[in-house]
């Protein structure tokens, strides 16, 4: 007989029309102890503010708690204000930030430790995802990090951390972040027909540059 006899429930996550919202699940993620891994293709400051209190409580509750975040460093993907705030909170070397410039689109939020929890689905950490978009996600709890349902996600996040580079302050300079946006969109453009590039990609890139310059992606 398997040592994993009783399977805890798997919950579906959505936005305001769901019984269980993504933001609520993320709050529960930070309510437990261990190492929390965040992989979010888009991570905006307003999205961060929605869960900041939970992040602060998690870091202050135990010096053993750690937060590992893998982000896309481009100006349209990640707000520099998040990094600066997390670094300011990090009095005991509990926060590790990594950059993954290769078109990061994954969304995975997982906590190891005594009561592991895994969240995956369509939602980035953004206010739009929390309050407007139709999102679909899955929240899964298991009694051990060695459970076969959970182990693949922890192994995957270990692999992407190994493939990523530490996020540095120089990566957050506006020209550097805008440059990353250009690189991302140029790679996408190579995979699209020329007409699609002209009609879709070029206006988007121009819009990114304008918005990033004016608003610094608040």
Automatic annotation (TrEMBL):
The question of whether Membrane is a record keyword is answered with yes
InterPro entries to which the protein is assigned, alphabetical: PLD-like_dom (IPR025202), PLipase_D/transphosphatidylase (IPR001736)
- Cross-referenced CDD domains, in alphabetical order? PLDc_Bfil_DEXD_like (cd09117)
Q: Which residues cross the membrane?
A: 197-217
User: Which keywords does the record carry?
Assistant: Membrane, Transmembrane, Transmembrane helix
Domain annotation PLD phosphodiesterase: ranges: 100-129
The yes or no answer to whether the keyword Iron-sulfur is present is no
* Entry-linked Pfam families: PLDc_2
Protein name, UniProt field: PLD-like domain-containing protein
């Amino acid at each position: 007989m398997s040592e994993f006899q009783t399977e805890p429930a798997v919950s579906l996550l959505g936005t305001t029309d769901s019984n269980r919202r993504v933001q609520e699940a993320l709050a529960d993620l930070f309510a437990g102890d261990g190492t929390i891994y965040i992989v979010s293709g888009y991570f905006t400051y307003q999205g961060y503010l929605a869960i900041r209190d939970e992040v602060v409580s998690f870091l202050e509750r135990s010096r053993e708690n750690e937060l590992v975040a893998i982000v896309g460093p481009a100006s349209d993907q990640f707000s520099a204000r998040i990094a600066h705030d997390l670094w300011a909170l990090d009095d005991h070397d509990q926060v590790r930030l990594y950059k993954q410039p290769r078109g990061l689109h994954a969304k995975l939020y997982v906590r190891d430790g005594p009561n592991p929890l895994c969240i995956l689905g369509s939602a980035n950490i953004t206010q739009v995802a929390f309050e407007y978009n139709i999102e679909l996600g899955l929240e899964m709890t298991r009694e051990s990090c060695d459970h076969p349902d959970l182990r693949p996600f922890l192994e995957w996040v270990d692999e992407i951390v190994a493939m990523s580079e530490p996020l540095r302050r120089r990566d957050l300079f506006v020209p550097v972040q805008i440059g990353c946006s250009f690189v991302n969109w140029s790679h996408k453009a190579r995979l699209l027909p020329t007409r699609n590039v002209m009609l879709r990609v070029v206006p988007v890139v121009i819009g990114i540059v304008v918005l990033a310059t004016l608003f610094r992606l608040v």
